[in-house]
């Protein structure tokens, strides 16, 4: 058997390659979120202090919100369980995390950071689904969810991020110049 025959046999099912790519994306975003959430939970007083020093109103509530979202959303993505809902929560949390990072300086000084990339990865997972190697596919028969589910959840994520930011922070995160203290 020639090497090309093995390659053809392994790549003849494009769905399997898609599922592998989605699995890799899902595991990386899920692990990143669980890691971030557990770090916040382990040193929760520092998380609250960070939120307080960043001007968040109700910093303890905000810290609980982001910690729970990162741990629960990340765990769900690792399993591929209710992927659109998990992606929605992670997307909202990462939009606010990105806003925290860019609010201290001019918006273009460091716009492409980890929360920015994770937000886009979560948005991608929201629309493409968990893939064939997931609880969504095995239990619910849904490796992908319909647009009637994903588009509203995308809008909910953006609205939740903006609402959370406005109610719990209240400061415009986008500046054309470095803000004065």
TrEMBL record:
It is found in: Cell membrane. Its main location: membrane. It is a multi-pass membrane protein. Keywords: Cell membrane, Membrane, Transmembrane, Transmembrane helix. GO terms for cellular component: plasma membrane. The chain crosses the membrane at residues 114-135, 147-168. InterPro entries: DoxX (IPR032808), DoxX-like_oxidoreductase (IPR051907). Coiled coil: none annotated. Belongs to the DoxX family. This is DoxX family protein. It comes from Mycolicibacterium hodleri. The lineage of its organism: Bacteria, Bacillati, Actinomycetota, Actinomycetes, Mycobacteriales.
